[in-house]
Structures are given as C-alpha cells and as structure tokens.
Design goal:
Structural class: mainly alpha
Strand content: under 5%
CATH class: Mainly Alpha
Helix content: over 70%
Largest sheet: none
Order of helices and strands: HHHHHHH
Number of helices: 7
Radius of gyration: 20 Å
CATH superfamily: Tetratricopeptide repeat domain
Number of strands: 0
CATH topology: Serine Threonine Protein Phosphatase 5, Tetratricopeptide repeat
Shape: flat
Length: 149
Amino acid sequence: MVRKLISLSTLIWLVASSPALAGDPEPNRENWSRYYFAGEKAYEQGNFSEAEQLFQSALKEAEQLKISGPAAQTILHLAKTYHAEKKDSEAEPLYKRAIEIYANSDRPNRFHAVAAIQGYAQFLRDTNRSKEAADVEAGSMGLRIKQTP
C-alpha cells in the first residue's frame, strides 16, 4: 500500500511538473520552431502550399508565447508565401502586421523591423507600386520603435 501511494504521488508530481501541462511556453516554442523551420524548408523548395500550412501552424503556436518575435517572424514569412502563391490581397495586411509588431514590441529589434519594411517594400515593387515602395523605405529611415522604460 505504501509503495502504491509513493508511486501515485510520484506520478502526480511528474504530471504536475510537466511543462506541457503546467502551461510552460517552452513546448509551444518547440512546436513553433518545428513548424517554422519546416515551413522555411518547404518555401525554399518551392512547395508554397505546404509552406503556407506549416507557417499557419507555426503562427498558432507563436501566438501562445509571451514574446512577440516568433509571431512577427512567422507572419512575415507567411506574407512572403502568400505573395509567392499570388495571394497578394492576403499578403499585404500580413506585411503591415509584422512591421507593426516589430515596431511596437516590448523587446524592440530595429534590425527585424527594418527587414520587415524592406520585405514589404519589395512586395510593393513586385506589384508595380514602386512609388509606394520608395515612400515605405524612406519612412523606415526614421523608424522609431517603442522603447521600454
């Protein structure tokens, strides 16, 4: 009986301390990484439909994390994938959303924000909107990102 109680208490402790069951974001980050990097690979191989599905799965995982970087990164790559699939009406709002997340993040990263802006500007050029692209790039020169106190 004592042995069963110890085993039961050990099992309860293991379940309670499991990161996946305790709400630890690490499993989500691992899942995000798996989907995200598989999406990148599919994109590089020209499998845009597969990449789209993987990036959508990665985004679901990223949105559960307490940091915004993975979500913004995934959104940006999903936008590029939509553009490659000629789904430009779906791509454009995602470019803008990624830029907004990077610019307003609690963990500002100017490099990623500017890279997102450059990706959006390239999208605009690809869709024959060179004047808008130039305006977006000119605006990025004075990019002000949220600073934490």
